[in-house]
Amino acid sequence: MPPRNEAQSKILEVFQQEVLDHFQQTVEFTTDKTAHEPSLNTSPKLLSLISFMSEAAQGNLHLLCSLQELPELLPDFKSFFAEDELPPVTDPIWADAFGELANQLLGRFKNEIYNYGITLQMGVPSIVQSLHIEPVSSKYSSWDDTFCVAGEGFNLSVYISMLMGENFELKDYSKESNESMMSTGDMMIF
Amino acid sequence: MKALIVDDSMMVRMQVKRALSGAGFDTVEAQDGMDALEKIKANQDVQFVVLDVNMPKMSGIEFLEAMRHELPDIAPAIVMLTTEGQPDLVQRARALGVKGWIIKPFKAELLVATAQKLTQALAAS
Q1: B20: which of A34, A157, B25, B85 fits an S-S bond (Cβ 3.0–4.6 Å)?
Q2: Which domains does chain B have, with CATH numbers?
């Protein structure tokens, strides 16, 4: 397995936690005010791939899902519509919503990882919709054990480039000592 | 009361529109900073602006700078609704007159309470 440096390990750890936190929070936000109870099944709905292309954490981030399962990933948006008014998954509004989901996941990830001394520059998300999308495959990589998944079931993807500055110092993070950094759900009135 | 909603996501614009319309705001929508500049020129009675940061063509910060330059006589209450939370960006927006900063995802009732509070303060000033 290619060696991960400390920053890369932290990026993977924080991203995973932030994704989980996001969905938990979204469900809480939605159940506050909607009639029908949204729920997230435990079966995988969203596939996240982070690929590093250098020691400096230059790389790419892909989020993939199927159109059919997309409404389940967006309970807050799904609850926006009455059951009989739900737009078909082929409606462009769902691809737009998936792009916004990626934006929110990356935003909270970027804000959180900043607290560890890692500043990430993220590219503009690019959304791809097709009949079949095959995620990163080992046949395209010089690394021996690049994460490889079966390509079935994915037809919506968001791709974002990721670049971390080379001069960083990974630091311990304590929320108590970093009050100036805003995080998801925070509001500030000046 | 009139509000301008600026976000490149149709989903976010729909959510914000529903929240503000329910509180009695008339709404105008824009999908990026450049579109927002045109909309606010045509709707100078806008009292409240909900503004994203990262958008194509013109960012929220660039929109603020352009609005201050091109429309110096209008001063709606502006709240940023974004995923960005880095202190230097918040300070930059604050220096441009922004009154609030909310990190997505947002609670509709929180946004409405903020809109009401800021527009009332604007009317009283």
Answers
A1: B25
A2: 2-124 (3.40.50.2300)
